[in-house]
UniProtKB/TrEMBL annotation:
Species: Pelomonas baiyunensis
The protein's name: Solute-binding protein family 3/N-terminal domain-containing protein
Amino acid sequence: MPGTRRQILQAWLAGAAAWAQPVGAQPAALRYIVPTPHDRFGHYVVALLARVAELTAQPYTFRALGDRRMTQRRLELEVGSPQGTVDLMWGMTSDARRRELRRLDVKLDQGLIGWRVLVVRRDDLARWPRQLPVAELQRRRAGQGLHWPDVDILRNNGYLVDTAADTATLYDMLRHGRLDYFPRSVMEVLDELAGLDTRDVAIVPDLALRYDTGNYIFIGPHQAAVAADLETALSRLQAQGELRKRFNAAFDAELRTLRLAQRRVIDLQAPPP
């Protein structure tokens, strides 16, 4: 009966260990630092991560970095380093992110990051008719953030682009005539303008740009286990329809206000998302 005795001993040891543990004790949380959300989409992603953590076997928790802001390139370097101060980020795919990071292959935003409306000087609205030729649009100067993947997409489609470190600077450049327009995602533009003095800027009412892309979560290649856990949970939410429901609840009102179906859409080519 040696096998039976061994099984009895193992069962006794397991019971003793459980008895010795305080009532209600849980495994230590696996804490991960994420960028501090500064917009509606960021808050949506952080809430989504909390929901994802509920579906994993491991006790993951996610904490915001704090008030420190980083450029997208700085975030990439921090996430990619085992000694980095940030453990994951979200955004569009780029060549650098393909090379250096591990992408969770679940699109977070139904592809709407690739829908762009044009913010211009209010006094210039007459220069932005629905029938504006694409060749004329390509001659006008757009603004985008330094290291944003959109910069290469626009330039590869023949558009002129100037860059700056942050959106506040880009809006100032637009106001002072250093840019002709600022293409902004339909997920972010209304919240941005709500926080600005909009007497001198406005959204072109009848035009939009569109390219095939998406927002994803990126993790350092040294975090293979957490990447697999989170991707599995995200895939489950996607398959069950919960991901779309959460996104719609966060952004439906903005999309209705922007009347995308009534706009003339100019399609741009982009690398595979």
